[in-house]
Amino acid sequence: MKNLLYIGNKLSDHGYTSTSIETLGTFLEAEGFTVYYASSKKSKFFRLLEMIIMTITYAKKVDYVLIDTYSTKNFWYAFIVSQLCRILKVKYIPKLHGGDLPNRIVRSKFFSGMLFKHAYINIAPSYYLYEAFKENGYGNLKYIPNTIELTLYPQSVKTFTVPKLLWVRSFAKIYNPLMAVKVFIQIKQKFPEAQLCMIGPKKDDSFEKTVRFAKKHKVAVSFTGKLSKEEWIAVSKDFNVFINTTHFDNTPISVIEAMALGLPVVSTKVGGIPFLLQHEENALLVADNDVNAMVQQIERLFEDEKLAETITENAKKTVRNFDWEVVKNDWIDLLK
């Protein structure tokens, strides 16, 4: 088997949500690949420093360098490591993330060209990113979806009498957590016994703003903080609707996980979401930040039991394509 160096933000030990470097890396190790990682340093400076040192150290010892590539400040980690790989003559593979990456490749066209055009291949985990990169002249592309291990997601019977809303994401402006509480306030007007649970770590001041907003409007929201995958899956058994309120997105694992658990998804129609979810087929979709529309779509699930059943069953069929037992063949073929 091959040796790999995986560059990304391995920060779950610091209270952040696990990312691809931890999930995909673990899957690859289970298939017999030797995987080295950088970095788990909390400080951005020391994280970048370790990424550089590890790349120099392992350039002659690995077959490929996998690089989680985002659209925000972390874009520059990927850029610097990629150029180092070029100097050291080691093949590198950017794994594309982030709903705003299509804007980044236009906004930073020169640097994006240096990063992506010289890659061994660019991995797009959604057709949204695949099409965006293709339209901007990048031909060295391969679609390999984000993946989960379906056996870890037990089904539970859902009843649709009272809305019990579940939100799972980092508290960051880009994911618009405030919208979840605004939706909940309206839902409670019709369903006084409704519940909202918001699971995820703090990433910026969105958490404090969301908590203050809930208190101001006197609605009881359960804020759990970060939970392990096993913990939030256990919590999900007591809820019957998953809401996704993000401003930008790619193909969020949390949404795929919710679908696997049998939770009907009501989501904003942004970024890569329409490539994953189809309105009234495997989810219900609304415009970005449209609180009234999301309330209406949630209420439909409690007025039309057949609709909830259809969406849930179609969602289960959709997520079969994201099971590691299916996806792993693409990674093994590529890396061998």
TrEMBL record:
<protein>
    <submittedName>
        <fullName>Glycosyltransferase family 4 protein</fullName>
        <ecNumber>2.4.-.-</ecNumber>
    </submittedName>
</protein>
<feature type="domain" description="Glycosyl transferase family 1">
    <location>
        <begin position="163"/>
        <end position="317"/>
    </location>
</feature>
<dbReference type="Pfam" id="PF00534">
    <property type="entry name" value="Glycos_transf_1"/>
</dbReference>
<dbReference type="InterPro" id="IPR050194">
    <property type="entry name" value="Glycosyltransferase_grp1"/>
</dbReference>
<keyword id="KW-0808">Transferase</keyword>
<dbReference type="InterPro" id="IPR001296">
    <property type="entry name" value="Glyco_trans_1"/>
</dbReference>
<keyword id="KW-0328">Glycosyltransferase</keyword>
<dbReference type="GO" id="GO:0016757">
    <property type="term" value="F:glycosyltransferase activity"/>
</dbReference>
